[in-house]
């Protein structure tokens, strides 16, 4: 579920029935399972095909370490109040080396957990992009000491991408597949 969507509310656009899936959606669901994010967005095939390429690159083919990627995605899901995104990325974050305590701390202020400098900089970037629409010079300097220009571009694009995904999931009221908050990838 996403923001403002109690469990008894219906999605605004239902997932595409399996008999209507095209080859692109079939290939995606063969890898991920029939996740509602994909089966809903696939109702707009040309947009879905373009979007899935960017999303796949950021999620599976990017340069950022998995820990940094999932910190940024979960912080963004938190900021956008998107439980669907949160639930699907929680397991990926655990796989990327975050602990359950760290994942829980992502929903709190930066000073409410003893984050290391690297984690703190990624979380600060997500916070600043959410709140200001840009990254402060201080945070950029911290990130630049660790990442090259390609990783910096990717981090900003990743956070922006997951803001967009969360907005779509929330507005379309995409429901979790099991009615809960846990899941695979989105």
Layout of strands and helices, then pairs:
Layout: H1 23-32, H2 36-41, H3 45-60, H4 66-79, H5 83-95, H6 100-105, H7 117-132, H8 137-144, H9 149-172
Arithmetic mean pLDDT: 93
State the CATH superfamily name of the domain at 66-171.
Answer: AhpD-like
Q: Low-confidence stretches at least 5 residues in length (pLDDT < 50)? A: 180-185
Mind telling me which CATH architecture of the domain at 66-171 this is?
Up-down Bundle
Question: What distance separates the N and C termini?
Answer: 13 Å
Shape: globular
Please give the number of β-strands. 0
Q: What is the ordering of alpha helices and beta strands?
A: HHHHHHHHH
CATH topology of the domain at 66-171: AhpD-like
Please count the helical segments.
9
Percentage of residues in DSSP E strands: under 5%
Describe the sheet with the most strands: none
- Helical fraction equals 55-70%
CATH class group of the domain at 66-171: Mainly Alpha
Rg calculated over all Cα atoms: 16 Å
Q: Structural class, please?
A: mainly alpha
Keywords: Lyase
Protein name: 4-carboxymuconolactone decarboxylase
Domain Carboxymuconolactone decarboxylase-like: 45-128
GO molecular function, one term: 4-carboxymuconolactone decarboxylase activity
Protein architecture, described:
It is a single chain. With 186 residues, the protein is mainly α. It has a domain of 106 residues: AhpD-like (Up-down Bundle). It is 61% helix and 0% strand. The protein has 9 helices and no strands. Helix 4 runs parallel beside helix 7 and helix 4 runs parallel beside helix 9. It is globular and about 50 Å long.
């Amino acid at each position: 579920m996403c923001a403002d969507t109690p469990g008894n509310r219906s999605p605004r656009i239902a997932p595409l029935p399996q008999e209507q899936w095209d080859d692109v959606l079939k290939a995606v669901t063969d890898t991920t399972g029939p996740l509602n994010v994909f089966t809903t967005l696939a109702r707009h095939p040309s947009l879905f095909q373009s979007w899935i390429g960017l999303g796949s690159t950021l999620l599976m083919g990017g340069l950022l370490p998995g820990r940094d990627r999932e910190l940024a995605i979960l912080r963004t899901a938190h900021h956008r109040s998107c439980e669907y995104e949160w639930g699907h990325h929680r397991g990926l974050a655990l796989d990327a080396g975050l602990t359950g305590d760290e994942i829980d701390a992502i929903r709190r202020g930066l000073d409410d957990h003893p984050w290391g400098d690297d984690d703190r900089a990624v979380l600060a970037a997500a916070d600043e992009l959410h709140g200001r629409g840009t990254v402060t010079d201080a945070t950029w300097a911290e990130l630049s000491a660790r990442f090259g220009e390609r990783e910096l571009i990717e981090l900003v694009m990743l956070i922006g991408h997951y803001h967009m995904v969360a907005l779509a999931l929330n507005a379309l009221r995409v429901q979790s597949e099991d009615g809960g908050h846990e899941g695979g990838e989105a």
